[in-house]
Amino acid sequence: MGRPAQRVLVAGGAIGRFGRFVDQPLTAIATPVVRDALATVGLTTKDIEAAFVGNAFGGALAGQESILAQVLLAPAGLARIPMRTVKNACSSGSDAVHLAWSAIAYGQYDCVLVLGAEKLTHGDKARSFAALASATDHPPQSGGRSVFMDVNAERANTYMARYGATPMHFAKVAVKNRAHAGLNERAAERAPLTVEGVLADKVVIAPLTRAMCGGMVDGAACVILVSEDFARRRGLTGSVVAASSVVSGVPEGDAEGNATHRAAQAAYESAGIAPSDVSIAEVHDPSAPQELFDIEDLMLCPRGGAIALVDEGATSLGGRIPVNVSGGLTSRGHPVGATGVAQILEIHEQLAGRAGAAQVAGAKVGLAQMAGGLLGRDSAFATVHLLTV
Amino acid sequence: MGRPAQRVLVAGGAIGRFGRFVDQPLTAIATPVVRDALATVGLTTKDIEAAFVGNAFGGALAGQESILAQVLLAPAGLARIPMRTVKNACSSGSDAVHLAWSAIAYGQYDCVLVLGAEKLTHGDKARSFAALASATDHPPQSGGRSVFMDVNAERANTYMARYGATPMHFAKVAVKNRAHAGLNERAAERAPLTVEGVLADKVVIAPLTRAMCGGMVDGAACVILVSEDFARRRGLTGSVVAASSVVSGVPEGDAEGNATHRAAQAAYESAGIAPSDVSIAEVHDPSAPQELFDIEDLMLCPRGGAIALVDEGATSLGGRIPVNVSGGLTSRGHPVGATGVAQILEIHEQLAGRAGAAQVAGAKVGLAQMAGGLLGRDSAFATVHLLTV
Predict the structure, then answer these.
(1) Residues of A in contact with B58 (CB under 8 A)
(2) What percent of chain B has pLDDT over 70?
(3) A59 and B74: CB-CB below 8 Å?
(4) Which of chain A's ends, N or C, has fewer CB atoms near its CB within 10 Å?
């Protein structure tokens, strides 16, 4: 792999409100966010040289599979330029960010727009579950819940047996992220939870209760990446993309770990950043236990060490290494293709010191991680971005 | 837009048989073609640094929308590396080629694989038509035929009124391309046609008869692009990608022409190649009349001049500027995401002098054009590639 020719900055963008907008078409959800992103950064459509749209289920759930990029961007005035829809399950949005980063880092463009957008709710809930199930190469095995929750539960049971975690630890994660979401006015779920309430909630599949799992949520986020030169010329400031690492899974398993772990290793190495340098992380937590596995895959602590982090409150706002200060997938919500783009913007705002009540004091290095789909026992795809001030 | 850092070569690849494989899953259609491509070029999966999969309707018609790249490539042994599915309607495959070209031309990678694959047939034919209709931002308006044929017919009627073309000219194009397909053992439709037979065939929508229109076809094609350095190190030869130009449409119309015209202008300019230099072209002809419009949009002749080219046989094999020597979309077949990739390989084989009975003598500059979807009156996306020996 060649060395990048120039540094890439996150110039800014916009995150729409995440929530259940069953009656709204995806254009109504996404296009205003594109306009907001341009206005926030102070650019016009003429500045944008190319666009990537991350979306996982536009065909299955929004009736638009093949020209979604144009359908969502044209009403915001983006025409003529190269644009396309990128599919990589939950990491569709973060892969779109990676492709935009690549196009700038290697000198093709100087200003690229990334939209992540998803309409996940559907009048017929079975359609939503069927779409999610298609993000795996597993045969469908569950009714009335996402196939991913079966896999999450199995991992949680293995983790409990191996490291002594209990459902209480998972409940603490859910409570922590809901408290974070309470500070995020764009989050889908903001009403406070208690550990007792989470544990007493309806069982989805043991040890997961409903309050430990994310629901079906719609939303959009739009980020604009620029070259350092472009930023200088236009008087823009932004956080630096220190690493954009993406990998596919290994279906038959892998002694090195998993896709997230491999993406993290590559990201730290290419950025010259150690896990101990990370000030804040947004990770892929479709269920609460997965946040602990991610933290360990990302080497933010040793294997099994995430249990102590939870008990100590280290991953809470104000703790040593705050994780999912946005509320994460379970509370901010997970409109699939939008999530990876939103993560980048959440980290960007934190590094800029503009996160208000949710600000992590002195945040200098932020990490955003997504894992998409399932391929055998591994994620089909995983992405790790490192951002610095 | 920055200048490319290195030249990109088409190292080779493989095209599968195009046809109606209603009972075969997309993996059975696509994965063997990936293996063939690697074997043909003499590379292994370890040589491939990244992959792009072009597909338009995998969600709607093959039940796999969000991780199709991994599902099709993993069985061929491609894991770990970055891969994703790219959606841009009929130009999904050629946009995937563009993204692979970009990644090499600007120095990110040296060896990238592109798979174009589509399962377009479906037990329920209405599903196939509904999927095609979703490649537009138009409300569905036709029953029992592709919405694109309505647009093609309208354009054909306008063209006849303006330039004096008759249905006979369209029939001649269909006959010519079917004769070409007779030389292509991978083509979907090879039985010879006559002008009288085409004109007497069932009317789809006037002036289009069934024999002027492509049918629903499945298929896959896989091309491997490499940097010039990589080719030298590995003893590979190949045609040079002299231009890879992609643009989105302008929904409200455009005085400059249309997406194909704009993509062509950019391609000629960046390659320093004139339309008169082109020896052979593969163009996007979902119906026979569209081939004439493409030829003119590509400036291979003046407006209205394609009529004379047809009458003179100039676009036939042996003529001055052979077009769709593969058989084109109507006869070779148009498995949507696969077509743009197949075009690149058809041109590549011609430039290498390996096209056998279909060889265009002295072919030195080849052009491949695709247009994807509809956005208002324009294509949603268009791609023009120029290849040279």
Answers:
(1) 65
(2) 98
(3) no
(4) N
Written as one letter, the residue type at B348 is H
Mean confidence (pLDDT) of chain B: 95
ipTM entry: 0.97
Specify if B134 maps to a domain: no
Beta strands in A16-89 (DSSP E): 50-54, 83-87
User: Is B375–A67 a contact, with Cβ atoms under 8 angstroms apart?
Assistant: yes
CB B229 within 8 A of CB B107: no
Looking up tokens 């790249």 gives: B69
Rounded-to-integer distance, Cα A5 and Cα A3, Å: 6
Task: Find the CATH number of the domain harbouring A315.
Answer: 3.40.47.10
Q: How far apart are CA A86 and CA A220, in angstroms?
A: 15
Output the pLDDT for position B143: 60
**For residue B279, with 0-12 CB atoms within 10 Å meaning exposed, 13-18 middle and 19 or more buried, which class applies?**
buried
pLDDT by 10s per residue, chain B, length 389 = 899 999 999 999 999 999 999 999 999 999 999 999 999 999 999 999 999 999 999 999 988 999 999 999 999 999 999 999 999 999 999 999 999 999 999 999 999 999 999 999 998 888 888 888 888 876 555 566 777 888 899 999 999 999 999 999 999 999 999 999 999 999 999 999 999 999 999 999 999 999 999 989 999 999 999 999 999 999 999 999 999 999 999 988 777 789 999 999 999 999 999 999 999 999 999 999 999 999 999 999 999 999 999 999 999 999 999 999 999 999 999 999 999 999 999 999 999 999 999 999 999 999 999 999 999 889 999 999 999 99
Contact predicate B70/B132, CB 8 Å: no
Q: Which residue of A has its CA nearest to B131?
A: A65
Give φ, ψ of B185 to 5 degrees: -70, -10
Chain A closest CA to B212's CA: distance in Å? Answer: 24
Whether residue B68 contacts residue B337, with contact meaning beta carbons closer than 8 Å, is answered with no
The question of whether A334 is a catalytic residue gets the answer yes
Which is the catalytic residue, given A98, A169, A334, A348?
Answer: A334
Predicted local distance difference test score (pLDDT) of residue B141? 54
Verify that A72 and A189 share a domain, yes or no.
no
Q: A375 and B95: CB-CB below 8 Å?
A: no
Verify that A50 and A157 share a domain, yes or no: no
Nearest in space to A129 (alpha carbons), one of A141, A118, A144, A119: A144
Q: Quick: pLDDT tens for B118-142.
A: 999 998 888 888 888 888 876 555 5
Query: How many domains does chain A contain in total?
Result: 2
CA distance B367 to A71: 28
A138 within domain boundaries: no
Question: What token pair was written down for A124?
Answer: 């017929």
**How many Cα atoms sit within 13 Å of A142 on the Cβ side?**
18
- Domain extent at residue B295: 146-212+243-388
For the beta carbon of residue A234, count every other beta carbon within 10 angstroms: 15
Q: Which of B41, B251, B112 is nearest to A74 (CA)?
A: B251
What is the residue type of B239? S
Same domain? B277 vs B158: yes
Is the residue at A139 inside a domain? no
CB contact under 8 A, B134 and A49: no
Instruction: Please tell me whether residues B174 and B258 are part of one structural domain.
Output: yes
Q: Are A176 and A211 in contact (CB under 8 A)?
A: no
Q: Please report which helix (H) or strand (E) contains residue A21, including its range.
A: none
Q: Measured between alpha carbons, how far is A70 from B138 in angstroms, rounded to an integer?
A: 13
